[in-house]
Amino acid sequence: MMKERPSSKLVRGARQESRRFRLLVIVVGFFLVSLTFVVVSKPEAILFGLSGKLPTDEAPASILIQQPVDKQAPVVASKKIPTGALGGDPKVVDDEADVKPKAEIRDGKEEENNVLSEPDPASGMTDPTHNRDGSGHKSDSEMLGGEKKEAEKHRVTLPTVSNYTIHDNEDPSNAKQEGASNTQQQGSKPLCDFSNFRANVCEMRGDVRIHPKATSVLYMEPEGSQRDEVWKIKPYPRKGDEFCLSHITELTVKSSKVAAECTKYHEVPAVIFSLTGYTGNLFHDFTDVMVPLFTTASEFNGEVQFLITDMALWWTIKYHTVLEKLSKYPIIDFSKDDQVHCFKHAIVGLHSYMEFTIDATKSPHGVTMVDFNRFMRGAYSLGKDTAVMLGENPKVKPRLLIIKRHRTRMFLNLDEIIAMAEGLGFEVVIDEANVSSDISGFAKLVNSVDVMMGVHGAGLTNCVFLPQNATLIQIVPWGGLDWISRIDFGDPAEMMGLRYKQYAIGVDESSLTDQYPRDHEIFKNPISFHKRGFEFIRHTFMDKQNVKLDCKRFRPILLEALDNLNP
C-alpha cells in the first residue's frame, strides 16, 4: 500500500478546522441576535422568568418578610412545605371500593349499577391525619373565635414603602362598580381577605393580569398609587390543614406597575381554584369544591372563566354537568397554559364557611343552601321539586331509599328493617351511593324518593338531590359521633330545606359488643377515647362497627318521617 502524503493530511486537517470555526461563528451569532431581540423588544419579560419569582435584590425591603407558608401571610419569600406523593387520580381509602353495587326495588327486580361506593367524609383520603388533630374537622374551640384569631394572625403592616395596612374588614364605602378607573374599582380595599378561618380569597377589579406559567396574579396600579401588596395564597378551602395544602400550588397575588404584556383578553370575570386536595371523596367533592364554587361563581350566570390549578381531569369529567352550568367557557388548565390572561375582574380562591354549608349572612350575594339544592336539581334536570304530600295523594306510597353498605357500618338486619318500613306503608328502595363518572342516574333515583336513610358516611352527601321537604335520616354509630354527624349532614340538610332526623344507636345495636366486654370503658365512656385522635376514632367506631337496628326503638323515627309528608 502507498503511504498517504503529508500534504494531503494538512489539507484535510485545515478543512476540518475551517468547518469547526464556521459552526462556532453561527452559534455565537445566533445567541447574540436572540439576546439583542429579547432586550430590545420585551425588557419587562425579565420580571416573569420561568420561576415566576420577583428577584429579591430588587424587591422593596418592606415586603421581604420571612414567615412560614402555613400561616399564609402576605410575603414574597417564604418557606415551602415539601410536596408529598399525592398526585394524579385519587387513591382513596374506601371501605367499599371493590364492591359492585346493586339497586333493588322491592318488587322482585334487581338492577345492577357499574359504580363504586364513595369513602366516608372522615376517612382522611390518603392520609388519616389530614388535619392538626387528624380529623379534618375543627374542634369546638377552633370554631369559636377562630375567625378572630385568623384575622389577628394575618394583620400585617408594610412599614417603609407606604402607610398601607392590610385590613381584615372591607370598607363599605368602596362600592364595586364596573367601568370606573382602577382606583375607583378597587379603592383602598385590600386585594385579599385572609380573615376567614376556613378559606382565603382575593378579589380584584381593574387591570388584572394572570400569568399561569409564573403562578402570579397581578393587579396593575394606576400612576400615583401607593399600594404595595404581596400575598401568597393556595386556592383550596382547607385553611390550616397543612397536609392538604402541601399539595396545592401556591400563587402570588400582588399589586404592581410592571407586568408582562397581555396575550389573551377576556370580557368575563375569572375564578381561580384548585382541585387536588381531598377531591375523590364524595363528601369533599361537595364541601371543598362544589358548594364553595357555587357560592363564588353562581352570580355570573355562566359568564365566568374558570382557571384550575392542580388540575384533576377525571374530576372535571365526572362533574362536567355542574361545571357547564356554572361556566359557559372551556376550563383553563394552569399547568399547561403559557398565556398572559387579562381580566377586568378576578377572584382567587373560593368562598367557604362551615362544612357542606353556605353562610347566607357572609356569602357574597346572599345565596343559600336552598339555592344550592335547587341548582343541583336543575343541573341534572331532576323533575321532582317537592316530596309527596300524602293528604293530597292518599293512594300514593311514599318512597324510602335505604343506603346500603357492604364492609363497614352495615345494616345487619336489613330484611327486618325493610319489612317494618313496608308495614308502615313505604315503598322501599335499596341502593348504594353512586359515585361513577356519570352520577345523573343515581341523582334521579335520589330525587324520586321522599325519605332517605343511611348510616353516617359519604353516601349521605347525595341528599343534595332530594326534593324540598323530603326527610334525611342519619343513623349515628356508637362512639360519641353525634356532633360530627350533625355538622357534616344534619345542619346542611336543614339549610337545604329538608327535614332531618338523627338516630344514635344504643350499645345493644352495635357490633362492638362482639369485640369488647359489656363493662368495657368503650361503652361506659366512649367520649374519653376521642383524646386518642381521629385515627383511633375512625378505626374503632367506623371501620370496625356494624349496626343492628332495634326496629321497635327506630319505628317512631319512620313514623315522624311519614308525618312530615302530611300537609
Please outline what is shown here.
The chain has 567 residues and is of the alpha/beta class. 28% of the residues lie in helices and 16% in strands. A hairpin with a 3-residue loop joins strand 3 and strand 4.
Largest sheet: 10 strands, mixed
Query: Any idea what the radius of gyration is?
Result: 29 Å
Number of strands: 19
Judged by helices, strands and strand pairing, the structural class is alpha/beta
Say what oligomer this is: single chain
Query: Roughly what fraction of the amino acids lie in strands?
Result: 15-25%
Number of helices: 15
Number of domains: 2
> What overall form do the CA principal axes indicate?
elongated
Helix content: 25-40%
Q: In terms of per-residue confidence, which ranges show pLDDT below 50 for 5 or more consecutive residues?
A: 38-184
Mean pLDDT: 76
